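Entry 12.
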Amino acid sequence: MIASALAMLVLTEKRDLIAILTLNRPEKLNALSRELVAELVEAFEAIAQDDQVRAVVLTGSGRAFSAGADLGGPRGEHGRTVEEWQARLAENQSRQFMIRDFPKPVIAAVNGYCLGRGCELALWCDVVVASEDAKFGEPEIRHGSMVASMIPWLTNPQAAKLLILTGDTFSAREALEMGLVARVVQPDRLLVEAERLAGRMAKVPPFAVRYNKQLINAMYDAMGFRSAMDYGHKIETLCHSRIPEAENVDGVNLEQLRREAGVKAFLEARDGPFRD
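Predicted 3D structure (tokens):
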């Protein structure tokens, strides 16, 4: 077994024909900072060229797969024009399609929190295996944000609206029933099961895996997947440009609160009204 740190925020470990990528920002619940995302793209680009790797497992260190976008970093979003938002979100979309169109199968091993953009990152993988303690959700709607989502393609209309329009969090078992994940296992079996599935795919001739993955994706494209995601990107651009309108809750400006009191206070003010 050969282990190496490709970059501080993304660890790469190779086991036989499998590469295990670990989001390595546990103190921030693997929030997707620009630096982490850049290193993840770099890791995938390297693996694409590595003939000794036939399958990929993507997971997170610590208590989360990923809690979503990095709310703790500097945010200049409020001054962005629609055109600037469009350029930034188009970049996000290209990264999502990079995983969907990756020439090798990618299995997400989801532990703990899997929220917002972290949830979408997992769902753009080919197969999702979840730990019993995993939590899925799209809470960003509560401050006016959104993601052009894979969820409607994996569930049904009612489940998609239940997930997206409430911002609520759902258990691994609920996500399994909705079709968001393929397997749910005990926490200590998560990587074992993800590696087992990756190992089975790695035994298939690489060209057959690649062509069959392309075929399955093409079937969904024929049903309008890419067109729907392009439309979702346009709506996402409009939605993000109006976030400041939604960040005033009961007279409290959420962005100002985030800057002055931190992410914990921001989340408490945002999510507090939704607690039963």
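Annotation: The chain has twelve helices and 13 strands. The radius of gyration is 18 Å.
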